[in-house]
Amino acid sequence: MGTKTIGVREEVYERLKARKREDESFTDLVNRLLDETTTDWREEFGTLDETDADELEQLVADSRKRASSGLSTRQEEALEALSNGDEDDDETA
């Protein structure tokens, strides 16, 4: 199998060297580091522990209640304003 030479900044080299085990080559080190990282962010996307999931669910429910309540109030106020406008039109006619 062939090899490739890559360039890295001095500080990156020092960081890699510090993580390199005594019995491994830089190729082994890079392979190990790549294996330790999740390559597909979607694998972990959307996962919460049960406590966080319950807390989020409660926050969403509370937010929906507040939004619904506010919407109902605004609708009632708009209907009242419209109905008052109709009465004013009837009185002037």
UniProtKB/TrEMBL annotation:
Residues 64-93 are annotated as: Disordered. It comes from the Archaea. Keywords: Toxin-antitoxin system. InterPro entries: Put_antitoxin. This is Uncharacterized protein. It comes from Natronococcus occultus SP4.
